[in-house]
Please model this.
Amino acid sequence: MFLNIIWLLFFGGAFVACLAQWLYLGNSGIFNDVMQSVFAMSKTSFEIAIGLTGILAFWLGMMKIGEKAGAVQMLAKLVAPLMKRLFPSVPVEHPAMGSMLMNMSANMLGLDNAATPLGLKAMKELQELNPQKDTASDAQILFLVLNASGLTLIPVTIMTYRAKLGAANPADIFLPILFATFFSTVAGILVTAFFQKIEIKNIVFISWFVGLSSAVFGSLFYFSMLSAEEMGVASAFLGGIILFSIVMFFLILAAVKKVMPFDAFVEGAKEGFSTAVMIIPYLIAILVGVAAFRASGAMDFIMGGIVAAFNVFGIPSDVVPSLPTAFMKPLSGSGARGMMVDAMQTYGADSFVGRLSCIFQGTTDTTFYILAVYFGSVAIRKTRHAVFCGLTTDVVSAISAITIAYIFFPP
Model:
């Protein structure tokens, strides 16, 4: 629904902008310019999608090894003590607890194909505990908010797009995304705990919060003390060693669990190929809409208005070209992905705008889509404070992304 409206707005706005330029500026060639831009972007979008295949196949192949070797289950056991405190209404032995743990573990590892079915299963099991079947329970709302906060350890898809679009170091956004998504997740938990009066003053929650916060703030303080060149070297080293260590951990775990790593990799890589093919129509649809909107001058008009508003309040305007990704993310993942790709194509994958767009894309998930799918699967109509809490994570993630981008990639 959201994508249909957005797509019509892109082309409708482009047509109105073209009419305005023709009637008031006498620019009769604007219509042809827009169509040429649409045709060129259609070809470029296809080339981008096909170019993703190899890198996407590699990462999904590695993820399949980790999945079969039990990495998801290990993560689930690690966060189980925290989950018991966050979901006091869900009995520890209830199947919903296991499904939620598995869903969030799969999300953290970037296993979208595994995470969504597990999430729907968890929502249906939580519905069994829900006394008011048409109204979202506390547990269902918090579970949805945690999904919307988008806590992901390995942003596979974003790194893949960056590699395809010529980034010198596709993984340089790995740490910034990890930091920003941490803040959005914590914000989601705290605001939901406030509404639900969850007791967070316990040793388990405080230990997790203090430990992770210390690591995040300590790392940010360390990076803020470095020069731009030193930060680039340190970030590349840490990002590279963490990602390579994860790859080796999966392989070692596979050997211990007697999983055939090559066979598992091939199985996952096949999914990577099918995924790359599957996104072609979505990527083309979004990018041609953006191309028409941009070529007509409508995008420049809107961005100019935002810059003027920022100038009034003394806010730097460097972030403006990347804001469409942030605005689109709560509505549509594929739409935001198209905005991210457009930003990297227009300004460069290694530009401040390109990198910030990637951080926006990686910090949260699509709040309204998750709300519609997860609550729709169990026929919940009354969402209570779910939308407010979900959008709070989006706002916090955007502010965190901008702040962290200025620390890591000052324009």
